[in-house]
Write a structure and sequence with these properties.
2 domains; mainly alpha; 0% strand
């Protein structure tokens, strides 16, 4: 029996979607592979990857954890100088934090 193919159509679609929204490092962490693997795969399949230079700091991550559920996404993104997509993805997939506002 052969090995299962890692880069399924679903994973390639996910890579395509993430490629323009988050850093290569974040994508690699999400898939559990190296940055080199992500870059090579994107190149092989003709997928555009935005090589973001703005890495999330520990202070930004702490801010997101502290205010998640208590501050709107738009306000938080503006205060951090991040896009809504970047904030939402990083909170959900990297920090495993929900940004849904809690009722008072």
């Amino acid at each position: 029996m052969g090995r299962k193919k890692f880069w399924t159509d679903e994973r390639l679609d996910e890579l395509t979607e993430m490629g323009t929204k988050v850093s290569v490092e974040t994508i690699a962490k999400h898939f559990g592979v190296t940055v080199k693997t992500i870059k090579r795969t994107a190149s092989n399949y003709g997928i555009s990857i935005a090589y973001h230079k703005k890495v999330w700091t520990k202070e930004e991550e702490a801010y997101v954890r502290r205010w998640a559920g208590r501050m709107s996404r738009a306000t938080m993104a503006k205060k951090l100088g991040r896009s809504l997509a970047s904030l939402s993805y990083h909170a959900c997939y990297v920090l495993d934090v929900s940004l849904r506002l809690r009722k008072k």
